[in-house]
Each structure stands twice: as structure tokens, then as C-alpha cells.
């Protein structure tokens, strides 16, 4: 008999351990929790005309509701949109807005890789992708995302040179978006877009960059002028070779020059000697 009682006690202990383990694993409320839920349901039924206003809740199309029953999330899926019911004594809920939210990153004083201090600000667009994670895994998802965006902006820009910062804003914004999206994934946040708004340089750096740009433009202008003179000299050389092969071409050039001079209303016109006369004297 003692052995039978011992076996029954062992079986009860194993069953109770299995039930408690299953309740812990599945997130069950336990015996006391179910008693409180049943009492709350009875009170709601007994006071039905009055408790209906506390039980009936409505969420909008862009909202979801995370319901807690005695501190536990009742379902692994948020409620809504539309109408849902809660027990007034044991249930509580948190509304979560699923719309895209944008916020400005305040200007951050950042030291670039080449030791230049700049002030950079931006804008971030994000939305809640998992309402339950945004409520259960972080105290304030919106505020935490704002702080993380500021630190991410400093970390990303700290690895860039000034030239990269000024010329590759799109790449920097994409890198920030990837880092933010990866960091906020456990919070149920989806970062949709990041933009760099303005980059402010110190006044001394602005003057130095303006002087450098002006010097570059002057150097380019001198190179272009030198190339033009070189091309003009080549054209003159080719023209002289053509005229040397055909002396009559030089006479036609003289006539064109006289026509141009006559059209300018000059009081004195000088006629050059024919080239044949000059060549006769040069021969003698």
C-alpha cells in the first residue's frame, strides 16, 4: 500500500510539473489567473448594461491594439482595426499607430575622417511594422529611434572624408538607413528612408574652398586659351602653306582685306604693293 501511494504521489508530482512547465511555455495565466478572469467575466455579465461601455473598444484603420490580460499579452497578433472586447477588471490595452512618422535629426557637430568639423542634420522616415514588439521590447520606440538616429549619423559620418560627405550624400543616407533598420528590427520598427538635409562648413573652410575653386577655374581657363592659340597657329601654318602654293590666293586675300577696311568708314586706306613687285625687288 505504501508503494502504491508513493507511485500515485510520484505520478501527481510529474503531472503537476508537466502542467506548470506547459503553462510557463505557452504563457498560460495559471489557476489563479483563470479564477480572476472568470470572476471578471461574471461581474461583466451581471452588470451588463453598464459594463458594455468599458468592454467595447474601437481602433482606427491605421491603428492596432495590443491587449494585456493580467500582465500577459493575450495573443501573438495585435487586434484591429475595428471593434474588439476586453474584460474591464483584468485586461488593458495599448494603441499603436502604424502610419509612417518623420522627424528631423538636430544639427550634429561631427569631426570627419580628415579632421574637419561640420554641422550636419537630416530627416528620418519610419513606421511600426510589429506592434507587439514595439510595445513589449522597448519602453518608447519613437524616442529610442530618434536617439539612435543621432548616434548613427555621428558614427557613419565620422568614417567619411569631407569630399565624400559633400559628393556622396545618397550613399551616406543609404548606409544610415541600413544601420538604423538593422538596429531597430527587434523593436518592431521599419526605417523606410533617411535623407541628409544640410551640411554646414566653418567660414574659414568655405573661404578656402572658394579660393581653391577659383584657382581651378583660372587654371582651366588658361589651359583652354593655350589650346585655342595652339589650334589657331596650326590653322595659320596650314593657310600659309596653301597661299605659298598658289600666289593668286594671296591677291584674293588682299582684296578681301580691302573690302573689310572699306566697310568700316575709314578716312585713309593704304593699298599694299602687289606681291609680284616685291618679289622682283627681292630677286635683285
TrEMBL record:
Keywords: Membrane, Transmembrane, Transmembrane helix. SMART domains: PHB. It comes from the Eukaryota. Pfam families: Band_7 (PF01145). PROSITE patterns: BAND_7. One of its GO terms (cellular component) is plasma membrane. The chain crosses the membrane at residues 32-56. Residues 54-213 form the Band domain. The keyword Cell membrane does not apply. Its main location: membrane. It is found in: Membrane. Belongs to the band 7/mec-2 family. This is Band 7 domain-containing protein.
Amino acid at each position: 500500500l505504501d508503494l502504491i501511494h508513493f507511485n500515485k504521489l510520484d505520478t501527481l508530482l510529474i503531472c503537476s510539473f508537466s502542467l506548470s512547465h506547459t503553462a510557463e511555455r505557452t504563457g498560460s495565466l495559471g489557476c489563479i489567473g483563470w479564477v480572476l478572469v472568470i470572476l471578471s467575466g461574471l461581474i461583466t455579465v451581471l452588470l451588463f448594461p453598464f459594463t458594455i461601455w468599458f468592454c467595447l473598444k474601437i481602433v482606427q484603420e491605421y491603428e492596432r491594439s495590443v491587449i494585456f490580460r493580467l500582465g500577459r499579452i493575450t495573443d501573438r497578433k495585435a487586434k484591429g482595426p475595428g471593434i474588439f472586447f476586453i474584460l474591464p477588471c483584468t485586461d488593458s490595452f495599448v494603441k499603436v499607430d502604424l502610419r509612417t512618422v518623420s522627424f528631423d535629426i538636430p544639427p550634429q557637430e561631427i569631426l570627419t575622417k580628415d579632421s574637419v568639423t561640420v554641422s550636419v542634420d537630416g530627416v528620418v522616415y519610419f513606421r511600426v511594422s510589429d506592434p507587439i514588439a514595439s510595445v513589449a521590447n522597448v519602453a518608447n520606440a519613437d524616442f529610442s529611434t530618434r536617439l539612435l538616429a543621432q548616434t548613427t549619423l555621428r558614427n557613419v559620418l565620422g568614417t567619411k572624408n569631407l569630399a565624400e560627405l559633400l559628393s556622396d550624400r545618397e550613399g551616406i543616407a543609404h548606409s544610415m538607413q541600413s544601420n538604423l533598420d538593422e538596429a531597430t528590427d527587434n523593436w518592431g520598427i521599419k526605417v523606410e528612408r533617411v535623407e541628409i538635409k544640410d551640411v554646414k562648413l566653418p567660414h574659414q573652410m568655405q573661404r578656402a574652398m572658394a579660393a581653391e575653386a577659383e584657382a581651378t577655374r583660372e587654371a582651366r581657363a588658361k589651359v583652354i586659351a593655350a589650346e585655342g592659340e595652339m589650334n589657331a597657329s596650326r590653322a595659320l601654318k596650314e593657310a600659309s602653306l596653301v597661299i605659298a602654293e598658289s600666289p593668286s590666293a594671296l591677291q584674293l586675300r588682299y582684296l578681301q582685306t580691302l573690302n573689310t577696311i572699306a566697310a568700316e568708314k575709314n578716312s585713309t586706306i593704304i593699298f599694299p604693293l602687289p606681291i609680284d613687285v616685291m618679289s622682283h625687288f627681292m630677286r635683285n
